[in-house]
Amino acid sequence: MIHHCNSCGSRTTRRIESYRYKESGLSNVVLHGVELRTCAKCGEQEITLPRMIPLHRAIAEAIVNSPGKLTGEQFRYLRKHLGLSGEDIGKYLHTDRTKISKWERGEDPIGPASDRLMRMVASTLDSSLRRRASSVARNLPNIADRPGSDWELHVDPQGEVSFVPIAHAA
Is 76's pLDDT higher than 90? Predict the structure, then answer.
């Protein structure tokens, strides 16, 4: 099938490759085996992500089970994934939206208790994650002191996820 550029109408070329998925709101997510179309004329690139809802659920599940401390980006991703405002999530964590905002912007560190509580809140409020809440709880003692920003989340075409230390990420 021939595809044309949405910007200029010229023909695009198709490649299957890895893609840093910044549109997720997370700087450390790498998708493998995605279709990328590039326009030879204007250079516009288009990515094809056919299974968005399962992809975003897989990312949320990976975050609640991540090996490092939650980053502000990850915290925001979980909050938005749940469809909650800063004020709403603050009620669960017994804090205010100003503190939530500072965590999400990286202006204040997320404390260990709030980190773990956020993981449990996310894994119980999201019906697709709820069945895994006990495994999330069992993983809580294993969370390393290393920040979550030291890891990349790799997602393959089947939705399988793995965390790779950035020093070893390819």
Answer: yes
**What burial class does residue 60 get, using C-beta atoms within 10 Å of its C-beta: 0-12 exposed, 13-18 middle, 19+ buried?**
buried
CA 106 to chain centroid: 16
Render pLDDT for 121-162 as a digit per residue (tens, 0 to 9).
999 999 999 999 999 999 999 998 877 778 889 998 788 898
- The span from the CA of 99 to the CA of 87, in Å, is 10
Distance from the first to the final alpha carbon of the chain: 31
Question: What is the SS3 string spanning 127-146?
Answer: HHHHCCHHHHHHHHHHCCCC
Which helix or strand (DSSP H or E) is residue 117 part of? helix 112-125
Can you tell me the distance from the alpha carbon of 23 to that of 103, in angstroms, rounded to the nearest whole number? 20
Q: With bands split at pLDDT 50, 70 and 90, how would you rate the model's confidence at 114? A: very high
HSE on the CB side for 166, CA within 13 Å?
10
